[in-house]
Specification:
The chain is mainly β. It contains one helix and eight strands, in the order αββββββββ. The chain has a four-stranded antiparallel sheet, with no helix packed on it. A two-stranded antiparallel sheet has the order 1-2. A two-stranded antiparallel ribbon has the order 4-8. Strand 6 and strand 7 (139-148) form a beta hairpin.
């Protein structure tokens, strides 16, 4: 903000001095689509008949660069369906996809809202979720849901919603 204010003061000082300022050539940015607007080069007559005298004019070019950072996100939903009979142990592999390959290796982890679950709400943990320690590629396919049938005491269809987030190693 201060640089713009100083530039504004500098332009105003130059416009009120009698000396004609030296205007540097506009550097090429490589952008051929850019059109520099034409500046007025003569005095302006107002509606009331008064004349506004043009002392000088100048063109100011501002170039900006932007660094955009896209956060790492999980972009896939996972729906796991399994049938467990009696005391059977069921292992269900699954994978999920990230929006991009992580830019730093061994830095990001997946965090589940729960990774040890009592699916039938009888007080015994019967479902476990396992994932690799770090997320180092775009598609993470080394994940496993393990259901221990011996810990399930209630028959029926059981559902549970688990949320996944990405955590940074601390």
């Amino acid at each position: 903000m201060n640089k713009i204010f100083v530039l504004f003061i500098l332009v105003n000082i130059l416009s009120f001095s009698n000396a004609t300022p030296i205007i540097p050539a506009i550097p090429s940015t490589g952008n051929t689509d850019m059109e520099v607007p034409k500046l007025p080069n003569s005095d302006k007559t107002e509606k009331d008949g008064s004349v506004r005298k043009l002392l000088s004019n100048t063109t100011v070019m501002i170039e900006s660069k932007l660094n955009v950072v896209v956060p790492l996100e999980i972009i896939s939903d996972i729906d796991i369906k399994a049938m467990v009979v009696d005391d059977e142990r069921v292992e269900v592999p699954f994978s999920f996809e990230l929006n991009k390959t992580p830019d730093i290796q061994n830095h990001y982890k997946v965090k589940y809202s729960e990774d040890k679950i009592d699916i039938d709400k009888d007080g015994k943990i019967d479902t476990y979720i396992y994932s690799p320690k770090f997320l180092n590629k775009r598609i993470i396919d080394d994940n496993m849901v393990v259901i221990e049938g011996e810990n399930i005491s209630k028959d029926g269809v059981h559902e549970k919603k688990i949320y996944m987030t990405i955590e940074v190693k601390q």
